[in-house]
UniProtKB/TrEMBL annotation:
A single BP term in Gene Ontology: proteolysis
Pathway(s) served: Cell wall biogenesis; peptidoglycan biosynthesis; Glycan biosynthesis
Lineage per the UniProt record: Bacteria, Pseudomonadati, Pseudomonadota, Gammaproteobacteria, Pseudomonadales
Domain Penicillin-binding protein OB-like intervals: 317-422
Keyword Membrane applies: yes
Purpose of the protein: Cell wall formation. Synthesis of cross-linked peptidoglycan from the lipid intermediates. The enzyme has a penicillin-insensitive transglycosylase N-terminal domain (formation of linear glycan strands) and a penicillin-sensitive transpeptidase C-terminal domain (cross-linking of the peptide subunits).
Protein's recorded name: Penicillin-binding protein 1A
Family matches, as NCBIfam families: PBP_1a_fam (TIGR02074)
């Protein structure tokens, strides 16, 4: 017996010596290649890019890894106890390597020649997760052990746990416990229950096997085992154990929804961040604050949505997306699962047709009513100019099995019958003082098409381009009172198959007409004569000041009719010069960029108007008076590209577009500080409205992606203007009227309407007009007959047909 005992003891000594020699040799061999543990203190975990509105509403998150790092002090104590019970209940006592685990690994090595199970401590898992691969090999295991020993020497237990809980993968793209709590329960780890904490603590062992979304039964078994371990270790008492065990496995997949729906803007911000930082934009935890206030973006979303819906309903119902009669309820649900909600329009299948309305089957398996009142608009669509008979009952519109679209009403109490609009639109609103983008919508539904029509769709702006030509004319000697002949004109060029005979929208002609009246009545022939008079080259040079690419502008008289191909963002940017007193500002979207620690990396300082710069300087002075060592940014002043007197006169002319011209519908807004211009291209393929006060410049475009007519009687004033009005009404609600003050160097004179000259005393029809001091007209007594049309710089014979070149 004594001999067996001695043999056993000597065997143990031999094994221990062998292990000691093995680990010593491994240390001497591997230690030169081990990474520095000190690097863990400055480790940079991958954190997604997050984009926020100017008032701190989450717009979007970009990145493969969902991760929200949490400090050790913010980790609930119950979670730490659950994690240690599951992974390493001796964590507080060992020095990185548990002796039992080491002996188990050694036994497996001696018996099989390789490591079968890890038995790793939390410290060893930190070593592996941060520095090593998942390879099962002797050398990797020894490296893990050696690193764990070094980690324990250089980091505290709290630091090790903080690294571990923020690094581990817990399924469904969730990295770290805070992200896991958000993904599985839609709340912070600080707010989950004890049972939910135990479920999350059970995931590191096998995120797929114990995933509560995929394997709820296995997840429950793992959770219950952890709760039992916590009870056995004294981490919880019997009452808390019983309560946690009674909790259901109620995990669901929660993806943090954006607090603000602005996908087109989010994509613009993402692209700009990738342009700045490359692929690191997705992993370095950048926080981006945009120039967009949430309330303005909500108004833009709603205005475009409603405007396109109204247009669509005016042109009738095109029928169901598909018909599925005779199928089972299960087959209908399978079909609904293939269709997404687009632009807030939910796919449903008509399950019952009654006199008072219909019942529809939703994707969640519920049957809900749709009232007949919301269906009465659905006259059969024949083409953009004609409709079928008005429906008298629901059966005239739908059949059982029709897959259609519905939308909740404003208070979410009932479903409204809808269809996905065939026409598209875009809206962009800018701060004219700085160029900051205040809202932007690039289409009816980003899910249906991520093509950003506000920034990418180049379309002809039609008459909404005319103010640029009028501005050029005002700086070329014309005045708002100048008379130009609104009469037929014919252009013939050698080689042309037929002459070009431009016409006005209603094919009428008014003869000599003042520029002010010609603009608000949108007379095409006047615009063409203006451009002909000031010259194509001068006009191209002048218009390119506003940011338009000269080479992309047509070098012919059609430029006066808005035949250039431009995006809504380009048009809105050009219009900011009219609204801000002649300054050229550039649109920008990103206001600030912060790193993962909240340190600002970028603060926008765009060139701005002189008034805006003065206001910014006042704010800086106030800040420095309060905090002398505060960091301030000196504002830059944008270049002034147009005489402020020109923009003031032009603004007054554009106000008349709303007061008595093609934008009269906007009078219902009850404001006196609005100016704008409609735009409609040939055959009503594009509908525009651009307008402003001193606070916002907003451009709206509507049309089809593949150009076709919007229909008879559909113009800028019927499709685009209502969208603009809805948005600007919301944006300017409770704001005082705001236009720029009248600049020095202007005169207001009484003008004779027939001559465009200063009126004689007592003239009964005279009206007041604005002039630059150097351009004020002479009195009637000094009329020069050689000018032909009174008050106009044009030659007398211009009304006659002439050659284009």
């Amino acid at each position: 017996m004594m001999r067996l005992l001695k043999f056993f003891l000597w065997s143990c000594v031999a094994v221990f010596c062998g292990l000691t020699l093995s680990f010593s040799g491994a240390f001497l061999y591997l230690s030169p290649g081990l990474p520095s543990v000190e690097s863990l203190r400055s480790i940079q975990l991958q954190i997604p890019l997050r984009v926020y509105s100017s008032d701190d509403k989450l717009i979007a998150e970009f990145g493969e890894m969902r991760r929200s790092p949490i400090r050790f002090d913010d980790i609930p104590k119950d979670f730490i106890r659950a994690l240690l019970a599951a992974e390493d209940d001796n964590f507080a006592n060992h020095y990185g390597v548990d002796f039992t685990s080491l002996m188990r690994a050694a036994t497996q090595l001696l018996s099989s020649g390789h490591i079968q199970t890890g038995g790793s401590t939390i410290t060893m898992q930190v070593a592996k997760n941060f520095f090593l691969t998942n390879e099962r090999s002797f050398s990797r295991k020894i490296s893990e052990i050696l690193l764990a020993l070094q980690i324990e020497r250089e980091l505290s237990k709290n630091e090790i746990l903080e690294l571990y809980v923020n690094k581990i993968y817990l399924g469904n793209r969730a990295y770290g416990i805070e992200a896991a709590a958000q993904v599985y329960y839609g709340k912070s780890i600080r707010d989950v229950t004890l049972g939910q904490m135990a479920m999350i603590a059970g995931l590191p062992k096998a995120p797929s096997r114990f995933n509560p979304l995929v394997n709820p039964e296995r997840s429950k078994e793992r959770r219950d085992w952890i709760l039992g371990r916590m009870l056995k270790l004294g981490a919880i008492d019997q009452a808390r154990y019983d309560a946690a065990m009674a909790e259901p496995i109620d995990a669901h997949h929660h993806v943090q929804p954006p607090e603000l729906n602005a996908p087109y803007i989010a994509e613009m911000a993402r692209a700009e961040m990738v342009g700045r930082y490359g692929s690191e934009a997705y992993t370095e935890g950048y926080r981006v604050t945009l120039t967009v206030p949430s309330e303005l973006q909500v108004a833009a979303n709603q205005s475009l949505h409603q405007g396109l819906t109204d247009y669509d309903q005016r042109h009738g119902y095109r029928g169901p997306e598909t018909r599925l009669p005779g199928l089972t309820r299960e087959a209908w649900l399978q079909e609904l699962a293939k269709h997404k909600t687009l632009g807030g329009l939910e796919p449903v299948i008509v399950s019952q047709v009654e006199k008072s309305g219909i019942l529809v089957l939703t994707r969640d398996g519920e049957e809900k009513p749709v009232t007949w009142d919301s269906m009465k608009w659905a006259r059969p669509f024949l083409n953009t100019n004609s409709l079928g008979p008005r429906p008298q009952q629901p059966a005239d519109v739908v059949q059982i099995g029709d897959l259609v679209r519905v939308e909740p009403n404003a208070d979410n109490t009932q479903l409204l019958f809808r269809q996905f609009p065939a026409a598209q639109g875009a809206l962009v609103s800018l701060d004219p003082q700085t160029g900051a983008i205040r809202s932007l919508v690039g289409g009816f539904s980003f899910e249906q098409s991520n093509y950003n029509r506000a920034a990418q769709a180049k379309r002809q702006p039609g008459s909404s381009f005319k103010p640029f030509i009028y501005s050029a004319a005002l700086d070329r000697g014309y005045t708002a009172a100048s008379l130009v002949n609104d009469a037929p004109i014919v252009f013939q060029e050698a080689g042309m198959e037929e002459a070009w005979r431009p016409k006005n929208d209603n094919n009428t002609f008014l003869g000599p007409i003042r520029l002010r009246e010609a603009l608000y009545k949108s007379r095409n022939l006047v615009s063409i004569r203006l451009l002909q008079s000031i010259g194509i080259d001068y006009a191209l040079d002048y218009v390119s000041r506003f940011g338009f690419n000269r080479d992309e502008l047509p070098r012919n008289l059609s430029l006066a009719l808005g035949t250039a191909n431009l995006t809504p963002l380009e048009i809105a940017t050009g219009w900011t010069t009219f609204a801000n007193g002649g300054y050229k500002v550039q649109p920008y979207l990103i206001e600030r960029i912060y790193d993962r620690n909240g340190k600002p990396l970028f603060i926008a300082n765009p060139p701005r108007t002189a008034a805006s710069a003065a206001s910014a300087n006042q704010q800086n002075d106030a800040l420095l008076a309060e905090t002398p060592n505060a960091s301030v940014i000196e504002p830059a002043i944008a270049p002034q590209i147009v005489d402020e007197r020109t923009t003031y006169i032009l603004t007054s002319m554009l106000q008349d577009v709303i007061k008595r011209g093609t934008g009269r519908r906007a009078l219902s807004m009850g404001r006196g500080d609005l100016a704008g211009k409609t735009g409609t291209t040939n055959e009503s393929k594009d509908s525009w409205f651009s307008g402003f006060n001193a606070d916002y410049v907003t451009t709206v475009w509507t049309g089809f992606d593949q150009p076709e007519s919007l229909g008879r009687h559909e113009y800028g004033g019927t499709v685009a203007l209502p969208i603009w009005m809805s948005y600007m009404s919301a944006a300017l609600k409770d704001k005082p009227e705001h236009l720029l003050p009248e600049p020095a160097g202007l005169l207001t004179l009484r003008i004779d309407p027939l001559s465009g000259r200063a009126a004689s005393p007592g003239s009964p029809d005279a009206y007041f007009e604005l002039f630059k001091s150097e351009d004020s007209p002479p009195p009637m007594s000094e009329l020069d007959p050689s000018l032909g049309i009174p008050g106009s710089p044009l030659p007398a014979d211009e009304a006659a047909p002439i050659d284009l070149f």
